[in-house]
UniProtKB/TrEMBL annotation:
It comes from Caldicellulosiruptor morganii. Belongs to the KAE1 / TsaD family. This is tRNA N6-adenosine threonylcarbamoyltransferase. Substrate binds at V134, V135, S136, G137, G138, D167, G180, D184, N272. Residues 23-306 form the Gcp-like domain. Its cofactor is Fe(2+). Gene3D superfamilies: 3.30.420.40. Its EC number is 2.3.1.234.
Amino acid sequence: MFVLGIETSCDETAAAIVKDGREVLSNIVYSQVEIHTSFGGVVPEIASRKHVEKISYAVEAALNQANMEIDKIDAIAATYGPGLVGSLLVGLSFAKALSYAKKIPFVAVNHIEGHIYANFITYPELKPPLVVLVVSGGHTNLIVLEDFDKYEVVGKTRDDAAGEAFDKIARYLGLGYPGGPAIDRVSKFGDEEKYKYPVAAVEGYNFSFSGLKSAVINHVHTLKQKKENFKVEDIAASFQKAVVDTLVEKTVKLSLETNIKRVAIAGGVAANSKLREKLVERCTQHQIELYVPDFKYCTDNAAMVASAGYFRLVKGQTSSYSINAIPYIGLVSKKE
Ligand code: ATP
Ligand code: MG
Ligand code: FE
């Protein structure tokens, strides 16, 4: 079965065609990052306008790259939330209209669930159960994926998401936007042991990064006031270590406690090289199988949306056109 995926939740206009939920035939991502960089972050109104300009071209390009006619498509899957409401509406409305006009079933997909499916694309044999660490720009969740489309959310952030912390610290350090890749890059030239930043001890599998963010900012502020020499690379590396350590420890703990010795990661921060390195190390120690999606499927793309759509479609779960964009839906446990 061929699914056309459409993703416009933030600042990427993306369309992709995926066969049987696993095989990517095309993956088009028109990023607006250059436009938003000058503002230091995504400007919602500009993002929606750009999506309107690009969406038909993205879908056309996805069909062309896959060498496929729209009539061969078995379902159209689009993100309905979470994300920026104006941005979401562009892809969602486009998908509904195309589905109605061409009489192709429509499947609405939760963007965060979509991120998880990047793993099923990268590993064609991979199946649940899995422990999944979702670390994206707006979300941080630890989940137990019991089956496709069936999961329990066991942990979340109480304040900032991991990606958000990366972006805010990068901005403060003058490293630009998006911050995650910048911190990742400069940290390679820094000493991660130089400063010990505290991470709030939060109960269970929950996280908190807001205190860490303040600690780093206050520290840099003090260094500047005292006119002490410091390297931005050391600050970035020490901050990154604090985030990565807490993410990795809780993920490994959940795997050991549930005895599901298979861990996957998802979302933009899953592209972080230190996170990958540390997970490899800790998972090897505990004989846990580790699954890490290809870089291009970690950040926003439509292939992951098409894959998530496929696994709903095969369960007969198509969506009604009455479904609307939901900006703050997040990830909540899902039982059949
Ligand atoms: P959400 O998926 O929660 O709605 P989003 O779609 O904006 O948010 P993603 O596309 O999953 O987020 O990821 C973007 C985030 O990933 C940004 O915060 C970015 O800084 C972060 N990121 C990307 N690459 C890296 C990296 N190498 N290291 C750390 N963070 C990274
Ligand atoms: Mg983006
Ligand atoms: Fe995302």
